[in-house]
Amino acid sequence: MAVDIKNLNHNQLNDLIAKAQSRQTELRKDKVVKLREKIHALIKAEGFAFDDVFGQGRAVKGPRKSGGIVPPKYRNPADPEQTWSGRGKRPRWFNDALKAGKKEKDLAI
């Protein structure tokens, strides 16, 4: 099936490209399924289980902590109410203090 792409307009060409990419994805998925079946058959023929060869998967280490409050690490000498944990974007007062010649350890709590 030869397609003369020189006679296609912009929309037809984009449609052809989308269909070709879709077909390419389908072929890749089919190939992966066939390969997976071959691997399972080989493992079974050798008398092993999939988990014997590749393990049980990722072990769960426990609940993940998220969104916790981190204690402040730095304090603004001009305004002790302003603190920064050292995470995320540096506050303006921190950058200004560094430009003024102070060091990070001078601002540490």
Automatic annotation (TrEMBL):
One of its GO terms (cellular component) is protein-DNA complex. It is found in: Cytoplasm, Nucleoid. GO terms for molecular function: bent DNA binding; DNA-binding transcription repressor activity; minor groove of adenine-thymine-rich DNA binding; transcription cis-regulatory region binding. It comes from Dyella marensis. Residues 61-92 are annotated as: Disordered. This is DNA-binding protein H-NS. InterPro entries: H-NS_C_dom, H-NS_C_dom_sf. Keywords: Cytoplasm, DNA-binding. Residues 61-109 form the DNA-binding protein H-NS-like C-terminal domain. Belongs to the histone-like protein H-NS family. The lineage of its organism: Bacteria, Pseudomonadati, Pseudomonadota, Gammaproteobacteria, Lysobacterales.
